[in-house]
Each structure stands twice: as structure tokens, then as C-alpha cells.
Amino acid sequence: MSSPRFKKDKEIIVEYESQVKEIRAQLVEQQKCLDQQTEVRVQLLQDLQDFFRKKAEIEMEYSRNLEKLAERFMAKTRSTKDHQQYKKDQNLLSPVNCWYLLLNQVRRESKDHATLSDIYLNNVIMRFMQISEDSTRLLKKSKEIAFQLQEDLMKVLNELYTVMKTYHMYHTESISAEGKLKEAEKQEEKQIGRGDPVFSIRMEDKNARRSSVKKIEKMKEKRQAKYSENKLKSIKARNEYLLTLEASNSSVFKYYIHDLSDLIDCCDLGYHASLNRALRTYLSAEYNLETSRHEGLDIIENAVDSLDPRSDRQRFMEMFPTAFCPPAKFEFQSHMGDEVCQISVQPPVNGELILRFQQLQSRLATLKIENEEIKKTSEATLTTIQDMVTIEDYDVSECFHHSRSTESVKSTVSETYLSKPSIAKRRANQQETEQFYFMKFREFLEGSNLISKLQAKHDLLKRTLGEGHRADYMTTSQRNVCDRRRLIEGEDTLPQEVRMGTPWEQRSP
Question: Rounded to two decimals, what is the model's pTM?
């Protein structure tokens, strides 16, 4: 019967590097997708600016040119993917959907007013310019965080690679030491089996035989000690590999399921709300200009009310499934017939594992408290930003009050949102608050990533040890208590292989 074929070290490494290469390609594709999304958004905002600028000119010539305007932009968008999607099932990003409805509404316009033209030129278009600037700025900040998260993720995968290689090395040494031990045992059996009757052996041969047996026994003892030492190193290396494997899978899962969504939300920060305000400014002007157009404007208002960053985020991720789909979990790669795929809790390592479990519990408790405070600060800052970008300043009904002089109309328009001196201070406050939010958001992500990795190791150790092992360990001898105290007081008292494998989660923050 043929022995089972085990994967060679090179095969395991090639398979692992192939999986990491696919993840790295995904990370690059994600950056491209974010860039592409912002480019589409900026182009959309540019189209909206061009649209309202041209519309302001056409408003002076009344309704005869409005149909030409609508046709110009509809022709531009007919060949786009969004337009085909719109005709198919109307499942579009909410800003794009508003854009199509605006074009339809233009065809229904029949009259214009000088005030409406002034509002378009000096209010709405400027808002779109600001939104475009904000989108570019927020993309840059979000990409910085995304790059940092991706770098951290690759560090985690590199750490997994290193730990896996260490495990393979120690396991190979353990197998080699076991082979040498078996060879010594065979020599001993051979020596014993070759013995002659005592009465037929001369005194010189007896002494030589006795010396040979002692040498073999001494060699066997050395190889037994070497095998035990290498076996212990192999067990510890495998335990560390399994812990790192669990933490790595947890980090990858968190990045793809939670962090990516949060990063997309960062890119959208204030975008939908600001676009909502700009479009509501347009709606206010249109409602006061002519009530006969309420039916068409109600349709647009419903679309504006549906401006939803969460729905758009979901649609956006569905548009690029290959970029945002989480990869498969990393599986434990057994080495050279090693069938143990769980944390080993034999007496040589169970005390160390229990101490490590307790240290993880303490570390996690501290980190969760710290990260919760950062989260509260971040959420409070986000609420402040949302209050800034959702201010209801789009009502321009005062601009349509009847006046005997056109100068009074111009002076009223000049006092609108964008001409007030407070706008510079308000925008400066907004950008300063954004900067603070991104700083806290970065801290929260870094803290939650650390908690995620430590929690994965903690949970795996908890499942492995169980409550019974913990209770037994607390009642061990005074010698184990002293050993544990030495472990806590400093790693200089640890053996060399333990100091090299001291996990980073034991370090002080």
C-alpha cells in the first residue's frame, strides 16, 4: 500500500503566494474603483454645472430653447451604461437618477424669470463646484486611509507567511530528530540481540561489550533529549501558526466586510447631503416660479429625497463584485503528514497557553474601553459634520418677492447663501471638523483591527482550553505559580525559543 502524498514546502509556498497575489490584485483594483467612482462623480457634477450655466442663459430666451438644452444632454447620456440601466430597470445611483429626472423636467419648462437665471449662475452652480472640490478632497483622504489599511493587511499576511515557514522548519527538524532516535533504538536492539552466553565470553570481550552498550545508551539519551526539544518547538510553532492564521482570516474578513464599506462612506461624506441642498435650492426656485409645474417637480423631489449614501454604496459595490468580494479563508496547511490542526494543550505548553489567554483577556478589556471612547468621539464628530452639511439653507423664496425695482431684486439675491461673509468661516470649520473626524476614524480602525486579531486568538484559545483547563491551572503547584510570575515579570527568564515567539499582543500599549 503506497504512503499518502504530502505537499512539499515549495508547493505550499506557491499556493500561499498565489492566494496573496490575488488579494493584492484586488486591493489595487479597489483603489482604481474608488478613483473611477470619484471621476464619474466629478464628471456628473461638471455636467450639472454646465447644465445650469447653459440653462441660465436659455432662461433669458424663455421656453423656445429649453427643449434644445434637454436634448443636448440626453443625447450625451444615451450611449452611457447608466442610461441603458435606466431604460432597463431604473436601478441607478441616486445622484444619477436625479440627473435623468432633471433632464426630463427641463422639457416641461415653458417660462423663465431673471431671478431664476441669477440663482442658477450665482448659487446652484457654485454649490456643484464646492461639491466637486469636496469629493476630490475626501477621496484623497480616504485613499490615504485605504492605503494604510491595505499595508496593514499585507503585513498581517506577511506575518502569516513567516510563522508558517517557522512552523515548517521546526516540524522538519522534529521529523529528523525522530528518525535519528529510531535509528539509535535499532542499534540498541541490535546490540542486545547479538549477545552471547555469559560463560562463553572472555573478560576482555565483556568489558568491550559493556562499553559499547553504554555508548549506545548515551547516544540514545542525547537523541531522545534532542527529539523532545524539537518536538516541543514544533508544537509551539504550530500553535503560533494556528493563532496567526485565525487572526489573519479575521483581519481579511473585517477589511472586506466592514472597512471597505466604511471607506466608501468616507468618500461619500457630505456628498449626498450637499447635493441634496443644491438640488433643493433649484426646487425652491422652481416652485416659486410656477406652481403649474408642481407635478413634474414632485417627481424630482422624490428622487432628491431618495438620495441615500447607503443604497448607493450597495449599488456601487454590486457594480464591481470582483473588486469588493471577500476572498476565501486561509486554510491550515499541514506539513509532512502532521495531522494535528488544532491548538495543542499538552503539559509542556498548556501553562503558557493559559497565561497567554489571561493576558489576551486583560489586553482586550483595555483596548475595548479605549476604542469605545474613540468610537464615541468619532460618532459625535460625524454627527457634527452631518449637522453642518444638512443645514436647511436652500429656501430662496425671498428672492421672488415682488419689487418695483430690479435693483432690490439684485440686492436680495446678493444676500443669498454663497455671498454671506459667514460662508468662509463655516467652510473652514467644516474642513477642520473633517480633519479631526478622519484622525479619529483612523484611530478607531487601527484599534478595531487590533481588537479583531486579538479577539480571534482569544476565542480560539478559549475554545481550546475550556473552563475546566482554566480551573485546573489555577490550582497547580507553587512551582507553576513561580514560573508564571517569571513570565509576567520579564521575558529574560524565558527559554530562547519562547522569547523569540513572544506574541506582540503582550506588549504594553
Answer: 0.69
User: Does the pLDDT of residue 219 top 70, yes or no?
Assistant: yes
Report the mean per-residue pLDDT for the chain: 80
Alpha-carbon distance of 236 to 231, in angstroms, equals 9
Distance CA 270, CA 390 (A): 8
222: phi then psi, degrees, rounded to nearest 5:
-65, -45
Residues 271/127, Cβ–Cβ less than 8 Å: no
Owner of C-alpha cell 527529539: 227
- DSSP labels, 449-492: HHHHHHHHHHHHHHHHHHHHHHHHHHTS-HHHHHHHHHHHH-GG
- State mean pLDDT over 286-297: 77
Query: How far is Cα 44 from Cα 67, in angstroms, rounded to an integer?
Result: 20
Confidence at residue 458, expressed as pLDDT on a 0 to 100 scale: 93
Nearest to 357 by CA among 450, 473, 477: 473
Distance of alpha carbon 361 from alpha carbon 152, whole angstroms = 23
State residue 421 phi and psi, 5-degree precision: -60, -25
Instruction: Report CA torsion sign: 375, 377, 378, 383.
Output: positive
Q: How many CB atoms lie within 10 A of CB 185?
A: 14
